[in-house]
Amino acid sequence: MVSNDFRSFLAAIGSSGDLVTINDQVDWDQELSGIGRLSCERDGPAFIFNNVKDYAPDWRVATNPIATWRRLAVGLNLPAEIPLRDLYQTYADREGTMIPPVIVSDGPCKEVKISGDEVNLFDLPVPMVHDGDGGRYLGTWDLVVSKDANSDWVNWGMYRFMIHNERILTGYPRPTSHLGKMLLDGYVPLGKGMPIAIVIGADIPSHIAAAATFRIAGNEAELAGGLGGYPIDLVKCETSSLYVPTSAEIVIEAEIYPDRIAQEGPYGEYPGYRSGEMGNSVCARVTAITHRRDPILTLDTTGFKDSSATTTSISGAIAIKRRLEKHGVPVVDVYIPPEGGVHLAVVSVRKGGSEIAQQVVEILTARRALMSKIIIVDDDVDVFNMSAVIHAFATKCHPDRGTHIHRYEGRANALTPAYSLEERVAHSGATVAFDSTWPPEWPVETTPIRATLDSMYSPEIQKLVTERYKLLGL
C-alpha cells in the first residue's frame, strides 16, 4: 500500500499491525499523551483517538507516527520488516535524488477555512502532553514553513509551539536554528513580522525532511520528494505567500512579532527530560487556520524514544558519515541509537586508534556540537547491533588513553541534560569520544580474538551451523 498522505500512512500501518484505534473517550489532559508515552517506551504501536473529551467526534488525534523503525519504513513506502542497515542505505540513496514540488491551486488542507476573529486555538484538541509542561503544545509533530527575508530560501523545520491564548502561540526555535537565524538576522532589524505556517499531519516524507539534518539554504520540499519518490503538491497560504503541502490535515498560519516576546515552557523534550523553566520566547499571532474535514491532529509525546528520535537519528547519522568521509576519516558506518536521545553516535572505522578518535571528535564539534558522546569501533563491529557495540565499548575502550574529551564554548547543545544551567545558557560544553578500537600498532598475534561464531570458528563450521539452524526452524 503506497502512502502519499497522512491518512494513507495510517491505513498502511494499520495493515502492518502498527496502529491501534481507540474509540472510547480519552481525556486530552495527559491521559491521551500518557498512552502514547508508554507505547514509545515499550516500542509499541501508534494510536489514533477518535473520541477526545470535550471535543466533537470530527476531531481526532494520532500519536507518535514514526516512533519505531517499522513505522518509519512504512512511511517511506518500504516493508515494515526491512533490516535497519537496508533502511539506512535506502534513505541515503533517496536523499541524493531531489524531486521538485508541484504548485497547485487548491487541496484537501483548504476544505475548511477559519480566519480573523473566528480563530480560536482552543477549538483544536491540543493535548496537555506532560505533567509540569508550561501549557498545551500544538507543535510537537509539525512542519514549520518560513522564508528568509533577504533571499528566496524557504526552510521547513520542526519546532515546538505552545498555546498562550486563543490567538497567540509561543515557541522555541533556538537562535542557532534556521528559523531563529532568519528571524534575528532578517526580520528583527527591519521591524517586520515574520510569516510562518505550522503544518500538522502532512505526508510522512515531508515531516522527515523537516526534521532532517540538512544543509543551510537546502530545499526540504525537494528532499521530501526524493525521500518519498514523488513530487510534493504545494498550495499557497491564505494570509501569506508561503506554500504548504496540500495533503496536510491542519495548517496554522501565523506571524512572529519582531518586537514582542511571551512566556513558554518548560517542556518534556526529546533527550528524555523536562527542559528549562518558563522563559521568554518568540511570540506569534495566528492569522488563519485551514484544515481537512474530520481533521487529525498529530502528536509526538516527546521524550524517551519518540518520533523525532528516529527521524533525527537516521538523517543525522548519514550527515555525520558524509562529513567524516569529506575529512578523510576511514569511516564505514554511523548509527545514532534512538535510545540515546540524539546525544550518542556509534562510528565504525577501517582503521582505529587514538589519532582517529581525536580527529572524529574534533570534526564533529567544529560547528554545532549536538553529540556529547561518540563510541568508535572497529569495522568488524556492526554499529546497528547495540549488543556488539556495548561489548566492544566494555572490553576494548581503555579507561584512560581510550577517552578523548573536547571542550568548547558557544556551540553546545543547550538541551543536553548533563549540563548545568550556566553551561546551557552559555552554550558551553564538551564531547567525549570513547576509542573502542584495537590500537593499530598492536601485533596481530597479541590482539585478542572475540569468542563469537564469526571470529573463532572456521568458515566451514559457520556455514554448517547456520544451515543446521535453518533446518531446525530457528
Describe the structure.
The protein has 13 helices and 23 strands. The mean pLDDT is 93. It folds into two domains: 294 residues, Pnp Oxidase, Chain A (Roll); 130 residues, 3-Layer(aba) Sandwich (UbiD C-terminal domain-like), CATH 3.40.1670.10. Helix 6 crosses helix 7. 28% of the residues lie in helices and 25% in strands. It is of the alpha+beta class. The radius of gyration is 23 Å and the shape is globular. Strands 5, 6, 7, 8, 9, 10, 11, 14 and 17 form a nine-stranded antiparallel sheet that branches.
Total strands:
23
| Tally of alpha and pi helices | 13
- Structural class label: alpha+beta
- The rounded Rg comes to 23 Å
Oligomeric description of these chains: single chain
The dominant shape is globular
The CATH homologous superfamily of the largest domain corresponds to Electron Transport, Fmn-binding Protein, Chain A
Largest beta-sheet details: 9 strands, antiparallel
Salient structural properties:
single chain; alpha+beta; Pnp Oxidase, Chain A; UbiD C-terminal domain-like; five-stranded mixed beta sheet; 13 helices
